[in-house]
Specification:
- By secondary structure, the chain is an all-alpha fold.
- The protein has two domains: 60 residues, no CATH class; 224 residues, no CATH class.
- It is 57% helix and 3% strand.
- The chain has 13 helices and three strands; from the N terminus they run ααααβααααααααββα.
- Strands 1-2-3 form a three-stranded antiparallel sheet.
- A hairpin with an 8-residue loop joins β2 and β3.
- α7 packs across α11, α7 packs parallel to α13 and α8 runs antiparallel to α9.
- The structure holds zinc ion.
Length: 323
């Protein structure tokens, strides 16, 4: 009876109502009376059944003697007496990995050309982002993680970087220093962290992955810390949503960004999709079990990486005038 509107589910619903019929009062001429009379004589595939199903369902819960003690006891005992039957979603890896490898080689080719381009902040930022993307996707590809949760976290960053690059490229005509500002903004983020550690306002446990000295050295690499502003707002004072709008990529925000953000934030839907298996034992009452063995495999992400990489490659080629 998983399907609440299947024939057997509706028969059970009808039976419960009929058994209580002596306790229910209907208005004269009310259509439900016709339904109660007609239901047993009507074929389940009869079009009238659509109306009957709705009418019978509307009476669900009409009762004055609800007692869930027994049903609760039933499920508690049955849970202990029978085993879980977890259903595993395994989409496997698709054929697109070869294409992804080719695309990664194309990105690598662009990165190699980096030496031929004159140094400035613009080149530094674009090539830096490209190198970051290359490393992230390569890590997913080499470790065969295209079906994993990690691949979704990477996808979200990938989309955000694409939007950032497109946004900064568009704004360059109004603000020639925007590439440098982008670097300063990032340095400010590191400064904010190491300053709090120095002031004893932040806990940094021993052997933490946050290393105060590295943060300080990197943040001060281009400018002395006195000249680095800590900006608590978003870069260019625009939310990520506004940036998607500005570069006319709203659809991308609604699809990829919104979906993959569910994984980044650990929203329930993403947890359910990736880390929990649905138990198919009806006696266990629709619960989920943890995917301890890592058997649930998400849909291969390779095609989507290629989709965004193509757009990023176009920006890199256009902005740095390379082919
Ligand atoms: Zn179970």
């Amino acid at each position: 009876m998983y399907d609440r509107y299947s024939e057997i589910s509706m028969d059970v619903r009808y039976t419960i109502i009929v058994l209580k019929a002596n306790k229910l009062r209907f208005m004269k001429g009310q259509s439900i009376i016709i339904v109660l009379n007609e239901y047993p004589m009507t074929d389940f595939d009869n079009p009238k059944m659509k109306i009957y199903k709705v009418q019978l369902s509307s009476l669900e819960g009409v009762s004055d003697d609800e007692n869930y003690d027994y049903s609760n006891y039933f499920y508690e005992e049955m849970y202990l007496m029978s085993d879980c039957n977890p259903l595993i979603l395994d989409f496997g890896r698709n054929e697109k990995q070869k294409d992804l490898k080719e695309k990664l080689d194309e990105v690598r080719g662009l990165l190699i050309k980096s030496d031929e381009i004159k140094y400035d902040h613009k080149k530094d930022v674009i090539m830096g982002n490209l190198s970051y993307i290359y490393k992230m996707i390569n890590e997913v590809y080499i470790s065969k993680l295209e079906n994993s949760i990690i691949s979704r976290l990477v996808m979200r960053t990938l989309v955000e970087i694409y939007i950032n690059l497109k946004f900064i490229s568009l704004k360059e005509k109004d603000d020639k220093d925007i590439w440098e500002s982008y670097k300063d903004y990032g340095s400010g983020k590191y400064k904010n962290i190491y300053k709090k550690i120095e002031e004893g306002k932040m806990i940094c446990p021993e052997n933490s992955h946050i290393d105060h000295n590295i943060l300080k050295i990197l943040a001060n690499e281009l400018k002395d810390e006195e000249f680095i502003k800590i900006d608590f707002k978003n870069f260019a004072n625009k939310s990520i949503r506004q940036k998607f709008d500005d570069v006319e990529e709203k659809e991308l925000y609604d699809s990829f960004y919104n979906y993959d953000t569910c994984f980044t934030h650990g929203y329930w839907s993403a947890i359910r999709e990736s880390a929990l298996l649905f138990c198919d034992n009806p006696l266990h009452n629709y619960h989920c079990v943890p995917d301890i063995r890592g058997e649930q495999k998400l849909i291969d992400i390779s095609s989507d990486y290629i989709f965004i990489l193509d757009r990023i490659i176009n920006i890199v080629k256009k902005e740095l005038e390379i082919s």
